[in-house]
Amino acid sequence: MGKIIDGKALSQAVKDEVKEQVPLLEEKYGRKPCLVVIIVGENPASQVYVRNKVKAAAYTGMESRLIELPADISEEALLGQIAALNEDPLVDGILVQLPLPKHIDEEKVIDAISREKDVDGFHPGNVAGLWLGKDCIVPCTPAGVMRMLDSIGCELKGKNAVVVGRSNIVGKPMAKLLLDRHATVTIAHSRTADLGAVCRTADVLVLAVGKAGLVTGDMVKPGAVLIDVGMNRNAEGKLCGDADFASCEPVAGWITPVPGGVGPMTIAMLMQNTIHCFLSREAR
Ligand code: GUN
Q1: Domain that holds residue 101
Q2: Are residue 89 and residue 153 in the same domain, yes or no?
Q3: Would residue 268 count as lying in a domain?
Q4: Looking at the domain assignment, is residue 224 inside a domain?
Q5: Catalytic annotation on 111?
Q6: Angle at Cα 160 formed by Cα 154 and Cα 163, nearest 5°?
Q7: For a substitution probing ligand 1, which of 38, 39, 46, 49 has the most ligand atoms within 8 Å of its CB?
Q8: Is the pTM of this model over 0.70?
C-alpha cells in the first residue's frame, strides 16, 4: 500500500517557515517582500490559482497585490504594466498567470519580466541558470516536488527517475533537478513508444502531462515513489491527477494525492521564491 505524501501539510510547513522569516526581513531591511500576481481574463482555473497565491502571500505576512486585467487587453498594455512593475523598487516578485489569451505572445511576456523579479523561474536567464548550475530561481512546481521527495528521505543517487511530460514549466526543469541529485533520468512524452515499459523502470515516477488516468497500476514498479503533478477534471467533474489513483496506490511505495499533493506545494514554493528574489535584490 502506497503511503501518502501529504502536500497540504508539507506546504503548510513551508509557508510557516516563510511566515517566520518575513518579520526578520522587515526588521533587517526596513520593508517586507512584495509579490505581484497578474491575471488576464477570466479562466476559472487560473482565477482559483491566483486567489490561492495571493491568499498564501497574505498568510505569510508579506505584501502582495493582485492585478486583474480584461481578456481583451492589448499585448502592449500588458507589457507596459510589467515594465512599470520592473521599475518599482518595492516590488520583488512578478507573476503573470498562464495561459494568456491567444492574442498575447506568452514568450514576449515572460521575457519582459525582469529576471531578478521572475518568481516563476521562467525567464530565459533563470532557465539558463538552472541548466548551467548557477544561482537562479527554480520553477515552483518542480521545486515543490523536490521538497516532497526530501520530506520522505528519498535518496535519488543512482536511481531511475522517469518524468512523463516535457513542458518548460514542469517536465524539463524537473528532469534537471533530478539529474542534479544524480538520478538516471528519462523524459517520456506523448510520442514515447511504450509508456508502460518506460514507467515500469522508474524508482521515482513524476507525471506531468495533464491527462486523467494516463498511468495505471500495471505501469508502476512495485514500491516506486509516484509524484502526480496532473490537475484534471474527470467525467464527473472531479479534480484528479494523471495517475489512476485506485490502481496505482496499492503498487506504489509512496504516492501524492490530487488534490492535496503537488498543487499546494507549488504555491508554498512561490512564497520561498519571493523571499529569494527579495534577498537577491537587497543584497545588490
Ligand atoms: N499556469 C500553470 N502553472 C503556472 C505557474 O506555475 N506559473 C504561472 N505563472 N502560470 C501557471
Answers
A1: 29-115
A2: no
A3: no
A4: yes
A5: no
A6: 90
A7: 49
A8: yes
